[in-house]
Each structure stands twice: as C-alpha cells, then as structure tokens.
Amino acid sequence: MNCREVKQVIFLFTDNEMEETLLASFRAHLEHCPECAQQINYTRKLLTIVRSRCCREAAPARLRLRILQTMTRRGIVPE
Amino acid sequence: MTQPRTEPQSDFERAALPFVDSLYNTAYRMTRNPEDAEDLVQETYLKAYKYFDKFEEGTNLKAWLFKILKNTFINSYRKKQQSPPQSDFAEIEEVFENQVSEEATGQMKNPEDELLEHVLDEDVQRALDSLPADYRMVVLLADLEGFSYREIAEILEIPVGTVMSRLYRARKLLESAMLLYAREHGYLRDGEPAKMRSRDAARSGDTAAPPSEEFHHKAQS
C-alpha cells in the first residue's frame, strides 16, 4: 500500500471498519511512514472535534407529550 | 374521555421513545427548523407505530426508526428545506478541490494540526450546516449517532460502498469548511490568543476584552 492508497481508506481505519486483509498492509505501511501515521492522528483529532463540538439539540419536552397524546387520541394505543 | 398520558405504556413506546432526542437532533439538522423537526419526528413515530408489526424483533430498532425518518424527510420536507448559503458552499468546494488536486499530484499536505486548534464550536456547526443534505445526513449518522457503515447503508438504502465514498467526501468537505472558518477568525486578529476569541470569552461580557482590530489601527495612526 502506498501513501495515496492509505489516504483513500483512512476513514475505514479510524472507523474500525477495515477488513482484516486490508488491515495488515495498511499497518505495514504506517510502520515505515511517519507522514501517514501523522495523518492518522490528525484525522482522529478532526473526527473527535466533529463528534464532541457539534451541539446536540434535545427534543423539547412537549414533543414527547405530543407523541404520546396523539397516539392516545387516535386510539392506536390500547388502553 | 381519555386522560392525556405523560408516561409510555405500550411495548412500542417503551422501546422507541428513548430515541426521541437522537431523532429530533437529526431532524433539526436536516430541516434547520425546530417546528419542522418536531413535526418530522412526530410523523416518524406515528408511521413507526403503524408499521411496528413489520419490524423484525431482535433487529436494530434505532436504525429502523432512522430509516423511517429519512424517508419521511425525503417525501415531505426535502423540497421545502432552506438551502444553505450557496456562496459559502462554493468557497468550501474550491478549498476541497485544491486539496484533492494536491493529493493527486502526490504532494503530501501537511496536516493542519495547528489550525485545528482554532476551530470553534460554531465553526463545526456552520460547516455541518453548509453541507448538501446527502452529505450532512451521512455525517450525522456516522459521527453523531455512531451507526456502522452497514447500518447507514440500511437506513439510506444505498450500497455500503456508496456509504464509504459519500462519507469520505462529506468529511473532507466538512474539514475544508471548518479550516476555512477557523482561518477566517484565526488570522483576522493577529497576536490575540485563540482562547480569547472563544464563545466563552464573548459570553462573559468581560470589559477587559482585548481591543478590536479597528482600535489597533486607530492607535497606530
């Protein structure tokens, strides 16, 4: 595997979605390529930022009630 | 008359209601509108209840609910959703294309580690909002909801290979956008530590806040 190929499948590696067969040659490349190893660290950092900094909107309490009450009104929930 | 209920009663409610926050967050990011997001989630639950007998027990309920959300979004909300600022996206794509061509010519791009430190929460939000719907959805499913590639393929009803390529492009576009925004405020005010520019500093209403760039210019002249 060369640097270009590593870049193409980098997310498979950081997402733990890489197949065993590919994993061996991917790891072999990383062992002798500090630039790609650095790229992995950078990618992990980037994904951590996306996952942790994105604010998550909680459902308003009234939505939960609305869902329950609509089901009752429509009689689709057995009492 | 039936009393309004505040607690889940049926098996369906008990199993499905815990996902309401995840579904709402995704709906909100896709519709960019709180009212539409509420309607979309409510519609999702009603459809899910209606077809609950078609759900195979033991399979992934969360993924099944997200698939219904996705279909409802496409059928009812996609057309009316506000489009992102086009100028923003054109600029992001340009940064992205440059990055791709650099990579194609074998130039190893130096990871912009330092710039990453300057990314603020609102940059991430703005970058995500600037992505076209298909790309935004795949990032929401993978990075905010933690679905596997196979689950995303089921939810979006596309092959796993398409999930991989779409996620690749989506994250690269997201990266370009985040770095573009970080660069915008990273170099606008020279010499000022990045942390001072964070939302916390702005929120604190600190009267000892560093003077604006304008002030610097006036002071120098």
Instruction: Write down the oligomeric state.
Output: heterodimer
Summarize the helix and strand pattern of chain A as letters. HHHHH
Question: Approximately how much beta-strand content do the residues of chain A carry?
Answer: under 5%
Q: What overall geometry of chain A do the principal axes of the alpha carbons give?
A: elongated
In the predicted model, the low-confidence regions of chain A spanning at least 5 consecutive residues are: none
Provide a compact summary of the structure.
Chain A has 79 residues and is mainly alpha-helical. Chain A is 72% helix and 0% strand. Chain B has twelve helices and no strands.
Please name the defining characteristics of this protein.
heterodimer, A: mainly alpha, elongated, B: 221 residues, mainly alpha
Write a structural description.
The complex is a heterodimer of chains A (79) and B (221). By secondary structure, chain A is an all-alpha fold. Helices cover 72% and strands 0% of the residues of chain A. In chain A, α3 crosses α4. The mean pLDDT of chain A is 89. Chain B has 221 residues and is mainly alpha-helical. Helices cover 66% and strands 0% of the residues of chain B. Chain B is elongated and about 55 Å long. The termini of chain B are far apart. At the A-B interface, α1, α4 and α5 of A face α2, α3, α7, α8 and α10 of B.
Write the layout of secondary structure elements.
The complex is a heterodimer of chains A (79) and B (221).
Chain A: H1 3-8, H2 10-14, H3 20-32, H4 34-53, H5 61-73
Chain B: H1 11-16, H2 20-31, H3 34-50, H4 61-77, H5 86-104, H6 113-116, H7 121-130, H8 133-144, H9 149-156, H10 160-186, H11 199-203, H12 213-220
